[in-house]
Each structure stands twice: as C-alpha cells, then as structure tokens.
Amino acid sequence: MGKKILILGTGAQGSTVARRMDEEPGIDEIICADYDKGAVDALVSIMKKGRGAVCDAHNTGEIVRLAEGADLIVNALPLEFGKNALEAALAAGANYQDFAAPEGIVEAEEGGDPWLDGISYLFDEYGPRFAAIGKLAVVGTGSAPGLICAATRVAVRGLDSVDEIYNIVYEGVESKRFQPYWWSPVTALSDMSEDAYAFIDGKITRTPAFGLPIFRRYDYMGKDVRFVEHAHDEPVYYGLHADTHFKGVKNAYFKYGGVGIEFAEPLYRAGLLDKSEVDFKGVRFVPFDFTLSLVPPAPKTRTEIKAIIDGGLVSDDGCMVVEAYGRKGGKETRVEVHVFAPGLADSFAKSGISAEMYITGQGGALFTKLFANGKYTQTGLITSDMLTDGEVDYYFKSAAELEITLDVREFG
After folding, report:
1. Domain boundary at 318, 351, 384, which?
2. E strands in 67-118
3. Residues 105-131: what's their mean pLDDT?
4. Which H/E stretch holds residue 389?
5. I need a labelling partner for 144 at 20 to 30 A (CA). Which of 188, 198, 222, 382 fits?
6. DSSP symbols for 207-233
7. Domain total in the chain
8. What is this structure's pTM?
9. Has residue 393 been placed in a domain?
C-alpha cells in the first residue's frame, strides 16, 4: 500500500512538492491544503493523486483532521504556522518536513536570542517526542537551507579535518522590469537588514548586516562579485553539529551577493530599512514598511513570469558554491562544490516557473522523495545538514534527474 502525504501550503514550494510526489509510484494520495480554495483547486486539477482541502492553519485541530492516516506532513506555510504544524504531526503520528526552521515556538530567555533559543528548543523538545513515536522531523529543506546543506556535507567528505566553511550564493538574475526579488520581499529585506549569524572561533556569533565582505569570480562568472554577511540558518546548523557532521569546523559563514544585495544595501545605509517609527513633518511612519510598499511582490504565475522574461533580461546567471578549507593527508586543502541548476529562462521553459521557484521547490521535493521511498534511517528531529552519507548520495542522484548537479573541485 502506498503512502499518504498532507502538504500544507499551495504556493510555489508546496505546489512543486505536490506535483513531484504525484509522479512517485510509492505515493497513493496527496492532500493539498491551503486557505486559498482557488489555489488549491487549480493545483489538484492538474494532478492524478491530489485531493484538495481548505485549511486554516491557525487551528491545529484542522491540520490534525486532515492528517488522519498520513505518513508525512510537508509544511510549506509561513514561519508563524510551524509550531501548529509540528504539533499536528505528533498528534497524527506522522513524519514531518518543513522548508524552514519555525519561528516563535518558544519565548527567549532574558538577554537571549529568540531564533537561536528556538533552534535549541526544536532539538530538545521535539526531537525526543518524534523519536518516541518512531517518526522523523526534517527542518530547513528548501534550497538554502536544504540543498546547500547537503552540498556542504559533500564538500567536507573529502577532508580529514575542517577549519572553515563558506556557503556562497549569488543571485544574478536581473530583468529590465524592476524586480529585485524573486521570493518574498519582506523576508529578503528583513534578513538583509538584521545582524547575520556566523560560527567564528567555535562560537555562534552575530555579525553586522552587509559586513565582512569577500570577493569571488569563478570560471563561469564574467565579473568579480562582492559577497557579504546575510542572516541565514546554515552557520548555526554547522556550528551546532561541528563535531558530529563537519569534522571539527571552527568557522562557518553564509555569504550573499547580487541584485538583491546591491538594491538593499544603500537603503539600509540610508535608514530606509529601519523598523522603528519615525516622524517626517508631523507624519509618523515606519521606514521599512514604506520601502516595502514600493517593492513589487515576487512573480508567482506563469503569466507574470513570462511577461518579465518577454520584457527582456539584463542577466540570467548566478552561483551556489560551498568552499571547505581544511587538511587532507597532512596538507592544507580546499574543496569547492559548485551547484548547477537551470536559470530563469531554462526553468520557465522546463516548468513554467522562475529559477528561484525551481531550485527551492525542487530542492524541497528531493527531501520529500527520501520519505516517499523509505530512504531515511533516523527518528527524532534533524536539520538538513544531518543526513547520512547514503541519504546525501540518494538526494543528489535524484537531483541530477532534475538537472541539479554538482561539480566537486579540490585544490591542494
């Protein structure tokens, strides 16, 4: 008998997982749930195994009802619904997958960091609860975190010990139409305007927004690119698992560059991303909210994406690279893992979606495929950097079928 999956959220990520799982022979039923009935109906109309449901994820009971008999809940909803989805999975006795690490699941202690405290709470509270029912929760399963975490495991595999890890992402898609972000602008600008996380000298550390720049030009890039600190999960994951999964790494960074950074940094320096209320000629307003109101939302539909492409592209490139520095056979060694995936034009031609939607949605679906085919061996709760070597290999074997490939380079 095949498996039953509940997918919460029918946006770009959830719909991609649904359509991929519709092709899996080991899956019999896929419940696609969202508050937007129109989006649900549109998705299930093009599926063979899909069944639609309207769901208010503020109500944990509604999720539990839909999850009856489900083997897996995939949460592709905004961060605020993470706790409800986790609790529903436990109540339903289901495995769990989340594209992000849920926020707001615990109040920070005085002087603490709410997000870091939340990560610790996930492992300490939810890990044992999932293990007790023999189920697995996997958190952070998009492209970054997610795909890039699995690629980082490939990078460190070739080293005896690891000193430093860089996760480097360049978003080089620029259209003639003003479109600085191909994912949620509020998430992008929030992450860019807050202090980032890095793992430095064995400690998880906050680093300044747009700080600690590095420059890179790989052989497939036509120019030097400036990469800066960006608030992301990966350095925290690697720091927490330095000894168990990353061969004693002491430093880990997430570096981001490209169109979005170049747009946001001057706004940040001008105070236009501040979230505190200010007065301008007797009018009270929040600069961040005002700036956000002028930024176009990420295109979602085929028609929207086509219109941008038809209007002309200035550039359609980018990179996702892991650099791992350490020692091998007694010598200092650098391993680079370059992730290649379809760009905007190719992603649209293949699937009618943007490159951002392609790599995030497909990257997430590959974690679901591990569930669908019974490849996970753990129970409890893990983040996406904690796959076994066998799971990592299966992940990238499956990724290659979607034209997501790795180029591993070693420098002595």
Report:
1. 351
2. 72-75, 95-98
3. 85
4. helix 389-400
5. 222
6. E-TT-S-EEE--TT-SS-EEEEE---S
7. 2
8. 0.94
9. no
